[in-house]
Amino acid sequence: MTSKHVVRAFAAALFAVALAGCASNQNVAAQGAGFNWDPSQEKRVAVIQPDLHLGELTAGGLVEPRADWTKAAQTGIAGQLNAFFAKRNTAVVLVDNLTDPHEIQLAKLHGPVGRAVMLHALYGVKLPNKSQAMDWTLGPGATVLRDHYGADYALFIYVNDTYTSAGRAMLMLGASVLGVGISGGQQVGFVSLVDLRTGNITWFNVRTDGGGDLRNDSGCKRFVEGILADLPK
Questions:
Q1: I want to staple 212 with a disulfide (CB 3.0 to 4.6 A). Which of 66, 133, 222, 224 is the partner?
Q2: How far apart are CA 189 and CA 104, in angstroms?
Q3: At what angle do helices 67-86 and 217-227 cross, to 10 degrees?
Q4: Would the pTM count as exceeding 0.70?
Q5: Domain residue extents for the chain
């Protein structure tokens, strides 16, 4: 495992600890971001390739990234997103292969911004300069997506998902006999709807309940329907 992967695993572990005890599924309605999702008007949403990180939790507690699982999840989630929006008055542009450097940076930026929304808007770690729950943005640079894809909004999804290895499962079983609790795989995912006129996040939702095995289609369906369940129609 490279130092980059160790740092990522450590950060994910700290983040999971910070979320311990929180409700399994929460959402924050748009506030102060000019959100106007008119159900009578057709909307066009650019669905950005999900930023997914799937891996196997080893007996030693490190995460071994699995590119094959991640690829399967990207394909499965993209298909389920298309099916989800097909049931609404919403046109979708699936952006599944980012090549523009600026757009790639926007997709990467969503991860840290989304984590900040979770901690500071949802889970009580208040910031003195943030008086409104949805006073968050990806910046005016996000408006390039409006010009490129002819979209009104962009949907960004981030998921960090780990699965318990056989060795870890055995360790958990042995520890439980001794009355010691050892955690297994965890799934944390969040989604942001960004207004491409401003770059502001207008709607945000997070799931921390392990909502579906993203390595198969049924799990991807459960995840997408769960994380978008409260999206305004």
A1: 222
A2: 19
A3: 50
A4: yes
A5: 3-227
